[in-house]
């Protein structure tokens, strides 16, 4: 094995570890399950497999077996990484968590393969872009689309003459987006029970909403859950 090739391989593996570490650091800063070790392993192993793929295609002893195609191992990595990414996606109540982490797993694998192929500048540009988007775009998304958490809103009124349209406008006026509504009426006790599926900001003070709902009628129950 040539010394130049060995040196280049060490540089590539180190670069893969740096990329994976930076992506893992960003995930841990958001208290996500996937972290630095996982993404470093993904990025370094993808780098090594990419180096192996190119080496097998170029080395004389492997040409016959590999048929000179350096994409065969890379294609296997791309197919296999989807299973690992799928494991990062979880359903918590009415919300789905882990989609961004799954995408980052895919990204770390892509970085590793590209580093193994020697595309340092391209990886550097892509890494800077990905980190910038991950750190900055979330704040813009929260500002532009604050209602991102899906919740179940349960209301019970002790009067059966409730203005439903005014109730809906009151809920939406407080920053909630109504996705669906189910209603039941208990005729004997003159109760109206409402179940709304709403989207709300991550941090929200529901005490103001409760006061506004109490003004619409005799509110006896209020609960909102994920």
Automatic annotation (TrEMBL):
Transmembrane portions of the chain: 34-52, 73-90, 110-134
Membrane in keyword set: yes
Keyword entries, A-Z: Cell membrane, Membrane, Transmembrane, Transmembrane helix
Database matches in Pfam families: MgtC (PF02308)
Membrane disposition: Multi-pass membrane protein
Main localization, broad class: membrane
GO cellular component, one term: plasma membrane
Subcellular location: Cell membrane
UniProt domain MgtC/SapB/SrpB/YhiD N-terminal: residue ranges: 16-142
Family affiliation: Belongs to the MgtC/SapB family.
This protein's name: MgtC/SapB transporter
Species, as recorded: Treponema succinifaciens (strain ATCC 33096 / DSM 2489 / 6091)
